[in-house]
Write the structure tokens for this entry.
Amino acid sequence: MVGTSRMRSVEEHLDDILAGVRELPVESVPLDAALGRVLAREVTATTAIPPFDNSAMDGYAVRAEDVRGASDTAIVSLPVSADLPAGAAADARLEPGTAARIMTGAPVPPGADAIVPVEHTDGGTASVRVHREPTLGAHVRRAGTDLEAGATVLPPGVTLTSRAIAAAASAGRATVEVHARPRVAVISTGSELVPPGEPTRRGQIPDSNSFLLAAAVAEAGGAALRLGSVADDVDALRALLERAAREADAIVLSGGVSVGAYDVVKELLAPLGVRFGTVRMQPGKPQGFGHWLDGTPIFALPGNPVSAAVSFEVFVRPALRRLQGLPEVHRPRSTGTAEVGWRTPPGRRQYIPVTIVRDAAGAARVRPATAGGSGSHLVASLALADGLAIVDAEVEEVCHGDVVEVLDWRDQPPTA
Ligand SMILES: Nc1nc2c(c(=O)[nH]1)N[C@H]1C(S)=C(S)[C@@H](COP(=O)(O)OP(=O)(O)OC[C@H]3O[C@@H](n4cnc5c(N)ncnc54)[C@H](O)[C@@H]3O)O[C@H]1N2
Ligand code: MOO
């Protein structure tokens, strides 16, 4: 349990979250709707791929021995005994001493063991003059050379790309079994918030978090339901949460989790068993996680925009990947060299937005992206960041030339 007395580690809080979410059910979707979805059951080939021996060239199917030695000075002439366009169903044997005109993709007739490309002939239709000898098996694409019938085309857990969808189609599948896409309700809390574009009076600011978090949900493969912002009012928040729980598989809130007098998120949710506490990280110190009355997981993230972005990356994104049945919930990490020095908070792991420049060999150089360093309110300059540098709690200062851990937002691109 997150105590208010003791700061927990990032890992402790994340373990709680991952233990508190379950893979969503499996559904069957047509290939047209499969992009970005996570495969739940393996796809096997209904037939061999390719399903039959076929020609890789427009030309003539022959018995290689019938045209052995053919050259510009020793032209071999054969009668054309069949015409086989792609899609031809004919399966008559190629009679010795004849050629079948054949197009790319058409089934190679039994008995033929080489294709002579049309360029090596006179292109005749009644008979054909061959002026180059093919090697045995030339330009014949054998059945099953891509995959044998029954073989695994795609294993469970893969995110379906355009290439993976093509593989499923070629395996004779019209639908695939995938995990449901998590529907995630996003709610900002705070009486100071107004929808972007509307006039603000002193004290008010545009709600950026609900847009940040909804877009981040989509980037993580979920379907966001952005319910906007709600004032610091318990009844209004309760009504919105009831709707969110009905319509979504998870709820992400921002704001109202610190120690302020109007932190309604805590006021409403703590009595329901949602656990609030502090995590040894910066930004993102105050965190809440638990479940609504019907079991819908609720993430209560801090309201500062950089804190919300970092908290989503560190806690919500892994959970959304778990809900989708992805085997790896973490984004890959690498390292980078600090191009400038910066201060880090004592006793808390720092997640600082950085620009990342890679040299030709892939080595990364990083520098803080937000002009004011790691200030958790620096939402505008957050847009300049390529990722986060992660600095251990024990480190008090990063010096020019130090190697730091790097999480690159450009790695593991959106699942949809
Ligand atoms: N006395 C203390 N005060 C604070 C502490 C603390 O330990 N003791 N912790 C600070 C830290 S760290 C953070 S992070 C914030 C978290 O506060 P809340 O989650 O309660 O968030 P709010 O107070 O509602 O807002 C904080 C900040 O962010 C702005 N904000 C909120 N929502 C949005 C939004 N949707 N779009 C754009 N900006 C938003 C809000 O206006 C505030 O400026 O608490 C510190 N305080
Ligand atoms: O921890 Mo707060 O999240 O610094 O901004």
